[in-house]
Amino acid sequence: MIGWLEFIAAFAAFFASHRLPLRPKLRTWLVGMLGARGFTLVYSALSLAVLGWLIAAANRAPFVAIWYRAPWQTWVPLIAMPVVCVLITFGVARPNPLSFGGRRNNDFDPAHPGILRLVRHPLLLALALWAGAHLLPNGDLAHVILFGVFAGFAVLGMRIVDRRKMRLMGADRWTALRLRVAKGPLLPRPASWRGVVIRLVLAGVLYAILIGAHPLVLGVSPLPWVSGA
């Protein structure tokens, strides 16, 4: 019972940590106290810490099997996570007026949209793929709830962000920008190839870090030939 209580508490803390700091009055107060960069760093650190607690709490929750893992399922997150890492490194810290978390959105060039030509919400898609890929080999109740909620949150979040951006930008402007992005080139400008290579390298580094940290944080290796799955 204690394991389920911790799981519920971790879930409550996760949603509270993502909702309360973003309330306009509280956010304004925190930014005024910490500065814009300090707020971002503290908020990011808090989000990662609570996420780590939530995942650990799911591992400590009582095991209630819904389905049992087949050996091939272990390969699903191993194969999906490189795509997740690419979506993260290409989606973070770049102009993206069509989604959340964009930086320097005034500098966005719809004629050269980069990854947004293929994916309007790269970070939300990365979250959905991460959750869906980990859901399959983790068929116990706690992890089904955990990854199912994250996958549903990511998919629903795409629709919510679209509606919010459409309301803020105006339906005509939002539609026109989306269509311009969809018609942009698939390949980046020659001057942008250096940035593409850097982000690909960062994606590889992130993937290696996740593989190496997995047994340290969660106590099990994601590699089938190590875990014995």
State the total count of DSSP E strands. Answer: 0
Largest beta-sheet characterization = none
The structure class reads mainly alpha
Whole-number mean pLDDT: 87
By DSSP (H or I, 4+ residues per run), the number of helices equals 9
Strand fraction: under 5%
The geometry reads as globular
Summarize the structure.
By secondary structure, the chain is mainly α. 68% of the residues lie in helices and 0% in strands.
Structure report:
The chain has 229 residues and is mostly helical. The protein has 2 domains: 62 residues; 163 residues, no CATH class. It contains 9 helices and no strands. Helix 4 runs antiparallel to helix 5 and helix 4 crosses helix 8. It is globular and about 50 Å long. It starts with a helix and ends with a helix.
Which SSEs are present, and which pair or pack?
Blueprint: H1 2-19, H2 24-34, H3 36-60, H4 75-91, H5 122-135, H6 141-169, H7 171-182, H8 193-218, H9 224-227
Helix pairs in contact: 1-3, 2-3, 4-5, 4-8, 5-6, 6-7
List the keywords.
229 residues; mainly alpha; 9 helices
